[in-house]
Amino acid sequence: MRYYIIAGEASGDMHAANMMKQLKLRDSEAYFRVWGGDRMSEEAQELAKHIRETSFMGVFGVVRHLRTIKRNFKYCEQDILAFKPDVLILIDNSGFNLRIAKFVRGTALKTKIFYYILPQAWAWKKKRVHTIQGWTDKRYAILPFERAFYQSYGYDVDYVGHPILDSIAIKKKELVDREAFYQEFELANKPIIALLPGSRKREIKTKLPLMLSAVKHFPEHQFIIAGSNTIDKSLYKEFNKQGIPVIFDRTYDILNQSEAALVTSGTATLETALFRVPQVVCYKPGWATYHLMRRILSLKYICMVNLILDRKVVEELIESRLNEKNITLELNKVLDKNHRLKLLEDYNELETKLGGVGASDRVAELMIEHIKN
Fold it and tell me: Is the pLDDT of residue 246 over 90?
């Protein structure tokens, strides 16, 4: 089978790569052409575009790069026509992927269209469920409440569980122990508070200085910044005047040794929870974006942990509430022993709801089954 797979950012790249490994086990003749990152590139025969050329953050980031996005659409459409895939697999990235699904539906290609990691229609533009249903052959949900949401519109999706559990299970086998970690990075013999400011320039510019404002209030702890190799190291230096250690692309090792964390909203909140680290969620999209989001989103929470458990488990500091006073207050709370024990119970419930390890295996099995039938 010839597979064309499109992912739009780092997490999609990781989950798509794990899915591709499972597809290979079931299809010995699998041939992949992909839009993705380094992980997908390792599994694919051909890379059409790297995510560094296609990933743009936020409403205004998209507006600024409209010409590039339009060129990418055109290139992708022509590339699919030339490749003639048997299967098109769309990973998240709804703004781009839904347009591509529509395009392929309108061609003479007999390509099966699968959507894995569905657009968050439950958060906004709920009527997109009709579009998603109409332009795809099969849909695979990773969040436990998505199936009921689609069923409320008379549609069915397959719930496969969250693939982050697979990624963590794989990575945990490679993690170093406490002594080796502290020794490798010449750390002080103090408990760690992790700072996860995100993997985009704007996130680091807006959130890292605020996160670092808490450092002086916790002299018995050491802070570590989880850095991303996609960001120029000079950007961290620009905002990190205290000289807090920045450790690049070792986020899971950092979380594995941390007592608490300040985390940018997104998949990182799930990762932090699954490593059993008490956390405070930090979100600062900017005044204009924030007020636009408030108008169009129908959500009680922004943190995925809270959304899945349908209650406030993790504190969310959003926009003006993200300040030195509140960060310090909430960090002190999560460092409290009793608070920590309650939070760990909630994290156990979260992991159960996420379906356990094996999402990559389950989605590959269902895809192959549909193709054969």
Answer: yes
pLDDT tens readout for residues 4-60: 999 988 889 999 999 999 999 999 999 999 999 999 999 999 999 998 765 544 444
Confidence of residue 271 (pLDDT cuts 50, 70, 90): very high
Q: Which among 264, 276, 206, 218 is positioned nearest to 244, based on CA atoms?
A: 218
Task: Give the C-alpha separation, 117 to 71, whole Å.
Answer: 25
This prediction has a pTM of 0.84
pLDDT value at residue 294: 54
45 CB-side CA count, 13 A: 11
In this prediction, residue 301 carries a pLDDT of 87
Domain boundaries 2-162+358-372, corresponding CATH code: 3.40.50.2000
CATH number of the 168-353 domain: 3.40.50.2000
Rounded to the nearest angstrom, the gap between the alpha carbon of residue 77 and the centroid of all alpha carbons in its chain is 26
What is the DSSP code string of 104-124? HHTSS---EEEEES---TTTS
Place of tokens 């959130």: 207
Tokens of 294: 């408030």
DSSP per residue over 250-299, as a string? -HHHHHHTEEEEEEESSHHHHHHHHTT--EEEEE---HHHHHHHHHH---
Kindly report the number of other CB atoms within 10 A of residue 311's CB atom.
11
Contact call for residues 359 and 165 (beta carbons, < 8 A): yes
Do 144 and 159 contact (CB within 8 A), yes or no?
A: yes
User: Given this chain, do its domains 2-162+358-372 and 168-353 carry the same CATH topology?
Assistant: yes
- Cβ within 8 Å of residue 82, ≥6 positions away: none
Give the residue extent of every domain in the chain. Answer: 2-162+358-372, 168-353
Can you tell me which residue has the tokens 């930090």?
Answer: 282
Confidence at residue 201, expressed as pLDDT on a 0 to 100 scale: 82
Distance CA 298, CA 53 (A): 31
Find the angle CA(125)-CA(129)-CA(131) to the nearest 5 degrees: 95
Among the listed residues 175, 174, 127, 172, the one whose alpha carbon sits nearest the alpha carbon of residue 153: 127
